[in-house]
Amino acid sequence: MSDNLNKNEKELLIHVDDLSKHFDNLHALNGVSIDIYKGDVIFVVGPSGSGKSTFLRCLNRLEEPTGGKILFEGIDITDKKTDINKHRQKMGMVFQQFNLFPHMTVLKNLTLGPMKLQGKSKAEAEEEAMKLLERVGLADRAKAYPNQLSGGQKQRIAIVRALCMKPDVMLFDEPTSALDPEMVGEVLEVMRELAKENMTMVVVTHEIAFAKEIANRVIFMADGEIEEEGDAAEFFDNPKSERLKAFLAKVL
Amino acid sequence: MTFIDQFKQNFIEENRWKYILNGLGVTLRVTLFAVLIGIAIGFIVAIIRSTYEKTGKLKILNLLANIYLTVIRGTPVVVQLLIIYFVIFSSVRVDKIFVAIIAFGINSGAYVAEIIRSGIMSIDPGQMEAGRSLGFNYIQTMCYIIIPQAFKNVLPALGNEFIVLLKETSVAGYIALEDLTKGADIIRSQTYSPFVPLLSVAAIYLGIVMLLTFLLKKLERRLRSSER
After folding, report:
1. Best residue of A61, A90, A99 to probe chain B, by most B CBs closer than 10 Å
2. Domain spans in chain B, listed from the N-terminal domain onward
């Protein structure tokens, strides 16, 4: 349990050094540096257009960074010679729009990666998938197609799909933004469980109250830079920068 | 002359029905293999073109694919057939069926490519991102995730293309290949009675097309099961 570890014993998982992303004239990301440790639950907040989604998508190179370095488990994954596909298996990602594969049943959605990429047998992959499905309360929907599910169910399945790869970190890109309000809770509940189990998580979100509840660190981004970063309690109760104060005043 | 007499004259006498039966065999063989070649070319060209459009890679292959599409779609299939038979294979003796398969296959490939490309481009980019984020490479994501969905979406258009192709093979007579249409025309030229052979052949084409339409509808319905 991370509670038993003090900060010095924490294991560095992702080291981001001076990361930047420039689209033509737009500087979406301007020299972001941060260390992410195992067990961290990091929430990234900020106004829209602040670069928080770009930052998250650069972490697994869905967005190709134009500068800087990312060391994931000690390996420079921004190096063109690194096989990014191998490392992406260890970085689960959950999208705002779920992005389940509509032509496959839920169970096939979950087992495709483990079977094709990790060489697991069908039986083994399905057993693991069913276990995880049970934990999110969706075992009875294993044979359903994504279009037969509600938004909240889709997102829980999407989380399970990422978990089936046994990732070392989970990246959440506004996981509740496309959901009807009454479905937000069930997705947050799954994330809460994950955090309890010490999954390393990086979450881009507008759910400030939720960040307050489960994050151990919070990052405030503005104009493609980290404007302020701190422990969750400190961050919300005692914000330092004016922009964060103004932001919190608007969203809280 | 009664219809029965005409029928006898055109089909029974001198075993003329054999022109129809053999012609039907030729038409079906040419169509079947041309469809297979068309699908193969279509997929390759579609993947090259959509990969270029999405990622900017495969520049030279994309240029070649564009030239192929422009030339094939810009010239009549009869002219292509004649060029392949009389120019490209002028000095070699080849089976006319083979020439027809190649010509119609290459021709169909251009149309199939555009149909499949439109299918690939219609798939939400989030699907590619989801596949890549799991650790699949570009080709794997294409094969497991994008193409199956694209294929399903364009199945009606593809079916239509194959129906067009079946009927288009009726110009194979230009290189004196005795397909279904040519067979009927030979009978007509022997009996001087155009009515029965030509309408019979029209009915046969119609029957095959209706059967194909029926089968495609069935396949479509099966593939759509995920959208219930």
Report:
1. A99
2. 3-227
